[in-house]
Amino acid sequence: MTTLLAPAPVTDQEGRGTGLRDTSALVGRTLRRTTRQLDTLLISVMLPVMLLLMFTYVFGGAIDPSGRYVDFVVPGIILLTAGYGAANTAVEMASDMTNGIIDRFRSMPIRPTGVVTGHVVASMARNAVSSALVVGAAFLVGFSPDATLLDWLGALGLVALFVLALTWVGVAVGILASGPEAASGFTFVILFLPYVSSAFVPPESMPSVLETIAAWNPVTPVTDTMRSLLLGLPLATSTWVSAVAWCAGIFLVARVAAGLLFARRR
């Protein structure tokens, strides 16, 4: 007589453990792919340093003849780096959505949402390396911050929140785009934002229309907050509250949109 044994039920703890293992594996996949794409990796890491040198030595003398333009421009270069990283995330996410890998994951006993987490973690890691290189290069060309340890922690936390928000925007765009080529158009839009803000020149030096745009640009309060923290300048409460509110708002909207779009595309 054959006894039929019912499969043991999966406990919540086992389900959570499986989900963590799936997510960890997909995060590792994205990070390995990043290190194998040497051209993209080099551009992501070296482009911010090249932009720092260009703004400091080519434009810096005309903008600030005192020679201290490097102190002014470092926050802007870091935020520009975040935008470039988000644009790369959009392209890579669009590639995954259109090359059939999502369908492959659906046929496997794993959580496909780990793909999204993998792209977010990889973007944060790339931006951390790029930002560290920018700060290191800035010190070599004369960057002299007057920040305490608490100021540095505040600036790093704000940068992380800004990167996280833009990364989720990139994920949402990548899911929505019809392919990597369409998603690459996001690069222009996201990289244009810092130029019409306080990242590279004071907004009051712009024409009135652009000055108004810069005042409502979310990059402006984030840049002003970072600059005040790093250079030991007075920081208005309204400025850092606005910076955190913009970053948190963009993150929440992009996170919800990415979740809904991913569920629909699947």
TrEMBL record:
**Family annotation (Pfam families):** ABC2_membrane (PF01061)
**Which is an annotated GO molecular function term of this record?**
ABC-type transporter activity
**GO cellular component labels:** ATP-binding cassette (ABC) transporter complex
Q: Which UniProt keywords are present, listed alphabetically?
A: Antibiotic resistance, Cell membrane, Membrane, Transmembrane, Transmembrane helix, Transport
Q: Which residues cross the membrane?
A: 41-60, 72-94, 115-140, 152-176, 183-201, 240-263
InterPro entries the UniProt entry points to:
ABC2_TM (IPR013525), ABC2_TM_bact-type (IPR047817), ABC_2_transport (IPR000412), Nod_factor_ABC_transporter (IPR051784)
Locations listed in the record: Cell membrane; Membrane
Does the keyword Transport belong to this entry? yes
Q: Which domain of life is it from?
A: Bacteria
Q: How does it sit in the membrane?
A: Multi-pass membrane protein
An individual GO BP term: response to antibiotic
Residue ranges constituting the ABC transmembrane type-2 domain according to the UniProt record: 39-265
Q: Give the family, as the similarity comment puts it.
A: Belongs to the ABC-2 integral membrane protein family.
Write down what this protein is called. Transport permease protein
Species per Swiss-Prot/TrEMBL record: Cellulomonas fimi (strain ATCC 484 / DSM 20113 / JCM 1341 / CCUG 24087 / LMG 16345 / NBRC 15513 / NCIMB 8980 / NCTC 7547 / NRS-133)
